[in-house]
Amino acid sequence: VGDINYDGNDDFRIVRNVPAGPNIPYLYYIYDPSTRQFIYSSAYENITSPEFPGNSEIRSQWRDGAAKWGISTYTVANNTPRLTKQEIWQASSATQATHTVTLFNADGTSQVTVNEVVPLPAQ
Known about the structure:
Elements: E1 12-15, E2 26-32, E3 37-40, E4 50-54, E5 57-63, E6 68-77, E7 80-91, E8 96-104, E9 110-119
Antiparallel strand pairs: 1-2, 2-3, 4-5, 5-6, 6-7, 7-8, 8-9
C-alpha cells in the first residue's frame, strides 16, 4: 500500500508472480476518489521491482540476463507513468561494460547523454 500515482491517496499493488530472477512483476490498483474504488491500471504493468522515491518518480531496477542490467525511471502525470530515463550497463568483456544513459522526451524523441566503456561494476 502506498501512493503509487502521487495523487495523495493510497493505492496498492500485488505481486503477480515470483520469477526466478529479480524482476518482480506487479498488478497495480489505483484509488479513484470519485467512485471510492480501486481500479486496475495496466499503465504500470511493465514496471518491475519499483521504488517510489518521491517527486512523481518511479525507479525500476531490472536485469536482462547475467550481462545486462539497468535502472528505468518513470515520471507520473495524470495517473500515467512515462519512461523518462534509462540507464543500462552491458558487460562487453570479463572486465568492462558499456554504460549508456538515454533520456526520453514527452514528444517521443530520445537522446543518449552518456555512452562510455567503464570497468565492470560489482553487482
